[in-house]
Structure formats: structure tokens, C-alpha cells
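Reopening this ticket.

The earlier resolution said the output was attached, but the attachment link was broken on my side. Pasting everything inline this time so it's all in one place.
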Amino acid sequence: MNKLHPNIYFFNPTSEYSIANGNENWLPNRLLRKMEADLSILPMYFAQQNDYVIVEQLPSQDFLVKLNKVINKVPKFILKSNLARNEDFKTLPKHSLKPWGWSPAVHKFFKPFKDSCSGDFKISPIFEWKEVHKEITSRKFASEILEVLLQDNKHIFIPFHFLPRTCTTKKDFEKAFQDWGKAMIKAPWSSSGRGLQKITKQPIHPKVWEKLMGIVREQGYAMAEPYLNKVLDLAQQFEIKNGKVKYLGTSYFLTDKKGQYLGNFLRGLPGNTKKEIMDFTNESDKNLINPLKKALEESKLTRFYEGPLGIDMLVYSDQEKKLKINPCLEINVRNTMGLLAIQLEKFISPDKKGMFQIFFQPGKTFFEFVSEMEKKHPLKLISNKIDSGFFA
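Inline output:
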């Protein structure tokens, strides 16, 4: 088998929850299933013309006509509901299986298709689920990589006493609140800003205690870190192959007050970003690539994982109003919206900036939203690139 055989893409952004649960029969809740279904087409931006993207619903002809104006090589789509009885697809020679993220549940889902994959994929560290995969996808593992980076003691990094802590008891949480004043508590396995609890006031409300101890009950422990005066979110994107780490680019993203993901800037930060922030970010971003590659290559990650990953970072203002950075806030051992944003940048004019956002608004359909946006911001293409306007 060779690389002319298709890769099979599948969008499962709830992989961390499946990992935390550990049961291969785990299913996301109704709202998360709806999100997975609505966005199931997204991996097409990583796929080649010969590849397949597993979708809940086939894209309309109208959408494909619009898409072809910007992307000249649209992959094939196959319905998830037809897979179980599609014998031809089961036996079709494939190169690799490429879910958004690996988990016990997605391994079970892909089991019928593994035999028809390439020899390269069968010997890769991700072909079968191992217990170590749970460890390397946790926020605790990310904090170990952060600790390695902080040994370098760069003046722009968070201080050593800001390292995240593992909490299993009320006393552990109370010590963190006492030392830092404000804290952010995170579930070891969660994504897109979910599984977070901000602590800015004392005493802690009983319902908040319930939530914190609920994380401990469900996932074994919680991670506490200081709540910082955030200035900017960014992420470096990497790929691991044959034990080597390759830098793919840096993405800048937006989150809401709760830390939940809102969208990505395309082609760097907006033009109105303060020069001080722009200079600091550019300099620290450039200087972090090699230390991060080294820390990752010397860790378990390169032995037990192959594929894309994103490292979230946080630029903040300290008590003296100086800019500092947490160079490894968390590691997303999977595909990311940041990597998707880098792919989308290829579709806009070289001298333009843009923004990628996901629409969610109860009471309004996506069709209504798209119709409004297309009227307000008509699409203008130059040489098959988006020069201005809105593109769904």
C-alpha cells in the first residue's frame, strides 16, 4: 500500500471527554453530538482530493459550487450512518485513519477499517489505544513540559511558583487559593475552554465546591493554576512523525470571559493590536519554537504519539504591568482549530487578514445568519482568493 491510497478523516472534538471516561462505548451528550454533526465537514480543509471525510450529512450541491470557487480540490464525503453496511468501504485500501483526536471510543469506531490500512499506519504508535495515551493527553503532562521549559528561567516566563498544581482534596485547593488569591481550576481532560472554573472571590460558594470536587470524583484530580491578567491567547502548532517534531505555524485565537473558544485570527494579529504586544508576541513566539521542540522530543510524547498537536500559550500583564508568557498552558494532542486556521489562511489574498469563527445562536438558524452576512459583506474573490467579505 502507498500514499496514493486515501486517508479517512473524522471530526470528533470530544476526544478528551472520551479519554477521561475511558469506556470505548462512551457517547457525548446531546448538545456535543449536535456540534460534532454540524461541524463534521471541517476536516475537508486538511484532506486531499482522493481522501474521504466522514460526515453526518452530505454537503449540498450549492455549497460545493461555492466551495469550488476557493478550493479547487474538494475531497470525497461518506455518510457516517452508511459505514456499518458499506462492505466496499471497509475493504477499500486506505493509507491512514485520521480522527480529530484519538480516544478509546474512536478506536472502537474505526476498528472495522484498520485491516485495510497501510503497513506504515499499522506500525505507528497510534494504531492501538494504550494506557500511556491517557497520560500524555492530560493537563498534568502539559504542566510537566512547562516545568522543563521554566528550568531555562527566561525573564519573560511565568515565575516558577506559578506552576500548575494537582489537587485531590479541599485542602489542596485552599492552599492554591491562599498562595495565589485568584485561581483557574481545570479538569485534566477537557477541550475548547470547557471544564474550567474561575475562582476570584472568597469564601467559595458551596455550589462551586461541589463542581470542584465533582471534577476530582470524575477524573481523579483537578489542576489549579493562578488566574492571570490575560492580554492574548496564542498557540504554536506542531506535527510529530518518526519521533521528530516539526513546527507548522502560530495561531492567535479569541476566548470569552469563561475561557471558551470563540474563533481564530487569520494571518496574524489584527492591525490595531498595540505595538508593545505585537513586538513581545513576535519575539517570544520566535524564541520558543526550538525549546518546545526539544522538550517535546525528549518526552514520552514522541514515543507514543504521531500526528498534529497544538500548544496553547498565554501572554499576560504582571503586577508591575510587564508582559510575561506562559509558554505551555496546555497541549492539545490532536488536531486543533489553530491548525485549521493556518489551512484557511491559504484561501485569502496574501496581503489580507481575516477571522474564522463558529456560529452558535439559539433562536436563529445558520441559514438566516449566512443570508444576513452575505448581504452585509458580499464576497469578493481575486484570483480565486478571498479578498474581502464573508465566506461560510
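Reporter confirms the inline version is readable. The radius of gyration is 22 Å. The chain has a mean pLDDT of 95.
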